[in-house]
Design brief:
The complex is a heterodimer of chains A (about 170) and B (about 325). Chain A has about 170 residues and is mainly alpha-helical. Helix content of chain A is about 80%, strand content about 0%. The radius of gyration of chain A is 20 Å and the shape is elongated. The two termini of chain A are about 20 Å apart. By secondary structure, chain B is of the alpha+beta class. In chain B, strands 1, 2, 3, 4, 5, 6, 7, 8, 9, 10 and 11 form an 11-stranded mixed sheet that branches. A 3-stranded mixed sheet of chain B has the order 13-16-15, with helices on one face. In chain B, a hairpin with a 4-residue loop joins β4 and β5. In chain B, α2 crosses α3 (about 40-55). Classes of the chains: A mainly alpha (about 170), B alpha+beta (about 325). Chains A and B meet through α3, α4, α5 and α7 of A and α1, α3, α4, α5 and α6 of B.
C-alpha cells in the first residue's frame, strides 16, 4: 500500500488537473469531482507501491478505468430502470431494495463483460430465464452440444474472475 | 492463508457435474455419482463448493427485472456505442480494466473464499483434521491447514466448531477474526464476526483468546459468552439469544428486544426488514424456526401488538397495531 504521504503529494499536485481531465471526458463537473475523489481513494487502497515517475499517466490509467466503469453503470442503470417500468407493480422492488439489487446486477454484468456475445446470450438464457439447453439451442439455432460448451465456458470465465486472487 | 486452489481440470469437471445435474432436474442417480466424485478428493469438494456458490450468485432469477435489463443491453446498440467510446478513451484500458474491476468486486467477499454460505443457507463441513465446522447464513471462511498450522479465518458471518478429539500439540486449532485469534481446546464453540466486534460462546471445553498487542491469554470456560472489540474483551452476564440454536435451525430468544430480533432475522433473508421506533423495545421470548423466515415473521402479530406492512416481498416493516 502506498503511504498516505505520497498520495497526499499526488493529490495536492495533480487533483486540479485530474478533475479537468475527467470533466472533459464526462462533460459534467459533479461526476468528474466524484471520480477524481474515487481515483485517490483507489490509490490509497492499492496494495502495491505507487509508481511516481510519471504521476499523471498513472492517475489517468486509474481514472480511465473508473470512467469506463461509470459509463457501464449508467448504461446498466438505464436498462434496469426500463425493465422495472415494465414489471407489474406488485413485483417492483422499493427504492431501497432497488439499490441493493442494482449493485448485485452490476457485479454480475461486470463478470460477463469479457464473454463473446453468443456465449453471453446462451448463458443469460439459462440464468435469467431458466431455459434448458435444448430450448436455448432451438432459440439460438445452434446445437445442444455448443450450448453446453458455451455455458460451461461462461461459468469457467466467471470462476476465474472470482477466484483469481486465490490462485 | 488458503488451501491449495483446485486445478483447472477439477473446476471444469465440477462445472460439468453442475450442468448435468441442472439439466436432469437433480436426478437421484446422478446426484449420487456426483457425490461420489466429490468425495474422492478434497480438491474435488473444494472445486464443487466454489462452483456451486458462483452459480448461486449468478442466478439472475432472484433479481426482479434483471433478465429484461441484461437482454436489453445485449440487443441494443449501446454496446456498440460503448466500444466506440472506449476507443476514444484509448483501447488499452479495456482488458486491464475488466480484470481490475473484477478484483474490486467486494472487499469482504464471499466472492473469493474457500467456503461460503448464501443468505439463509447453513452448512456442515468436516475439516481435514476431522473437526466439524458449521457455517451459518452469509458466512465466509478461508482455511489454512498444513504441516504447521490449523487455521480457520472467519471473514464474515458465524461458525460453530467442534474440535476433533484427536490431539495435536504442535498445531493448535485456531479461528482468526478481525479482533482476535481464538484457540479451541477440546471445545465446541460459536464465533460470530459482527461489525467491529467478535462474539464467542463456548458450550464445551475451553477457548483461549489471543489478542494482537496483548500478550496475556484470556481463557473462556464452557457456558460463557464473550464480546471482543478494539477496547477489550468483556464477559457477558446474560445473552438474549441462544448462540448455538441456529445450528439446529432455530432462533431461541429470552426477553429479546424486537429491534434486535429483527436484526437477527434479517441475516437469514433478503431485503429490507425493520420496525418503527415506538415498538423497538417490545420483548420477545420463544423458539422460532429458521427454515422459513417469512412464516416466522407472520407469527409476530400473534404474540405482540404489531402488524406487518409489506410493500413488496423485498420490503417489510413491523409497525404498531393501530
Amino acid at each position: 500500500m502506498p503511504s498516505n504521504d505520497s498520495v497526499q503529494t499526488l493529490y495536492s499536485d495533480h487533483h486540479g488537473w485530474l478533475h479537468a481531465w475527467l470533466r472533459s471526458k464526462l462533460g459534467n463537473a459533479a461526476d468528474a469531482a466524484d471520480l477524481a475523489q474515487d481515483t485517490f481513494v483507489r490509490l490509497l487502497q492499492r496494495r502495491e507501491q505507487v509508481q511516481l515517475n510519471t504521476p499523471r499517466a498513472f492517475l489517468r490509467t486509474v481514472a480511465r478505468g473508473l470512467v469506463i466503469d461509470h459509463w457501464r453503470r449508467e448504461e446498466l442503470h438505464r436498462a434496469y430502470l426500463e425493465a422495472l417500468a415494465h414489471l407489474p407493480e406488485t413485483q417492483a422492488p422499493s427504492a431501497e431494495t432497488r439499490e441493493v439489487l442494482l449493485e448485485l446486477l452490476e457485479r454480475i454484468a461486470r463478470m460477463l463483460e469479457g464473454l463473446k456475445p453468443k456465449v453471453r446470450r446462451a448463458f443469460l438464457l439459462a440464468q435469467c430465464d431458466g431455459l434448458k439447453h435444448q430450448a436455448i439451442a432451438e432459440q439460438m439455432g445452434i446445437s445442444v452440444r455448443t450450448v453446453e460448451r458455451y455455458i460451461a465456458d461462461a461459468l469457467y470465465h466467471c470462476y476465474l474472475l472470482r477466484f483469481e486472487d486465490e490462485r | 492463508m488458503t488451501v491449495v486452489a483446485p486445478s483447472a481440470k477439477a473446476v471444469k469437471q465440477a462445472i460439468q457435474w453442475l450442468l448435468r445435474l441442472r439439466e436432469s432436474g437433480s436426478s437421484p442417480a446422478l446426484l449420487q455419482q456426483c457425490e461420489q466424485w466429490r468425495s474422492t478428493r478434497h480438491e474435488h469438494e473444494l472445486a464443487w463448493q466454489r462452483v456451486i456458490h458462483l452459480h448461486q450468485d449468478l442466478d439472475l432469477r432472484t433479481i426482479p427485472g434483471a433478465g429484461v435489463a441484461l437482454h436489453t443491453l445485449e440487443t441494443s446498440q449501446r454496446r456498440l456505442h460503448r466500444r466506440q467510446a472506449l476507443k476514444l478513451l484509448g483501447g488499452v484500458a479495456l482488458v486491464g480494466s475488466a480484470t481490475w474491476l473484477a478484483r474490486d468486486l467486494d472487499s469482504v467477499s464471499a466472492w473469493a473464499s474457500d467456503y461460503a454460505t448464501a443468505t439463509g443457507e447453513r452448512r456442515r463441513l468436516h475439516l481435514p483434521d476431522g473437526s466439524l465446522m458449521q457455517l451459518n447464513t452469509r458466512s465466509a471462511v478461508d482455511l489454512a491447514f498444513d504441516q504447521q498450522q490449523r487455521l480457520v479465518h472467519l471473514k464474515q458471518g458465524e461458525l460453530m466448531l467442534t474440535c476433533s478429539e484427536a490431539q495435536d500439540q504442535t498445531r493448535p486449532l485456531l479461528v482468526q477474526t478481525q479482533e482476535a485469534l481464538l484457540e479451541g481446546l477440546n471445545a465446541r464453540f460459536v464465533v460470530r464476526q459482527d461489525i467491529a466486534c467478535t462474539r464467542v460462546s463456548v458450550s464445551q471445553g475451553k477457548v483461549a483468546i489471543h489478542r494482537p498487542g496483548n500478550g496475556q491469554v484470556q481463557w473462556i470456560d464452557s457456558g460463557q459468552h464473550w464480546r471482543l472489540d478494539a477496547s477489550g474483551a468483556q464477559r457477558l452476564d446474560r445473552v438474549d439469544m441462544d448462540p448455538t440454536a441456529w445450528s439446529e435451525g432455530l432462533i431461541v430468544t429470552r426477553d429479546m428486544r424486537l429491534h434486535d430480533f429483527l436484526a437477527q432475522v434479517s441475516r437469514y433473508r433478503h431485503g429490507y426488514l425493520a420496525c418503527s421506533d415506538d415498538i423497538a423495545h417490545l420483548r420477545l421470548s420463544g423458539v422460532f424456526r429458521l427454515d422459513d423466515p417469512e412464516q416466522l415473521l407472520q407469527l409476530l402479530p400473534k404474540t405482540l401488538p404489531v402488524r406487518l406492512r409489506q410493500r413488496t416481498r423485498w420490503w417489510t416493516r413491523v409497525e404498531h397495531m393501530a
